[in-house]
Description:
The protein has helices spanning 19-31, 45-54, 62-72, 82-94, 109-122, 139-148, 179-189, 191-202, 264-281, 289-306, and strands at residues 11-15, 36-41, 58-60, 75-78, 98-102, 126-129, 151-159, 205-212, 218-224, 229-235, 244-251, 254-257.
Amino acid sequence: MTDHEPARKPRFGLLGAGPWAERTQAPALASHRGIEFAGVWARRPEAAAELAAAHGTRAFSGDFGAAELFADCDAVAFALPPDIQASWAVRAAEAGCHLLLDKPVATTVAGARAVAEAAERAKVASVVFCTLRFAAQTRPWIEQQAAVGGWFTAQAQWLGSLYAADGAPAEAGGYAASRWRREKGGLWDVGPHVLSVLIPVLGDVTDVTAARGPLDTVHLVLRHASGASSTVTVGLSAPPKAAAVGVELMGDQGRVQLPQWSDAIASFGSAIDGLLEASRTGHAHDCDVRWGMRLTQILAEAESQLG
């Protein structure tokens, strides 16, 4: 490359073509000015073709197609069920691709550790997309509360209403049809979001107590490294009028509440920025795959107590 030639933009691929990929990841990848959206892979060729066509990029399918995409990319974003994500992420890392993972990295500690070790061996950067750590409204709030300190306790709830009382989908947006969400429930789907707020502010979780609530609802009592405690309620089966999301911290500064946030596409764009920075500098991102593995360890411990 001569001094007059522009630097090549990093090439990003996307694995997955479901609702999350369609609504968030693909639009974010296609609109990001710092990268080139190199292609979409999906298990269903028709889904890959449709999403790729919508964003002017190439479609891939099958094992050979995935290997071809990895060979053509500098980084790969994932929109797959967590345990499928884990196995493909190992292959992507082995192919030398940086990893932009969805939460949770996996629903087993062994699966998450395999991804972390593969990324370490290959010396590739990684970011786990926990929305609240990247949203413009919540990211600075989390950083501010962590800097202030002096927190005594916290309470958090994330109650969605994906399912009706009989377990049937209560919304038509596609997420309720996800088999892994139905099997693993709110603990694994929205639990990572809550932990991604509490841990940076209160410190790592040192003790977990878990109990079942109605349907897939789970209650957690957590002790943190700072000495603070927190209580958490998560689930996907709340009545529509009871659905709510909130985090409140209590301490020397009084009571403060997590602000509302919006624009998942912009938030994912910030995660792309984070991965680009980590890959350029070699400095691990705060939300790297090791962080994602720690979330899996905490959630797996909670799940083991539920029987």
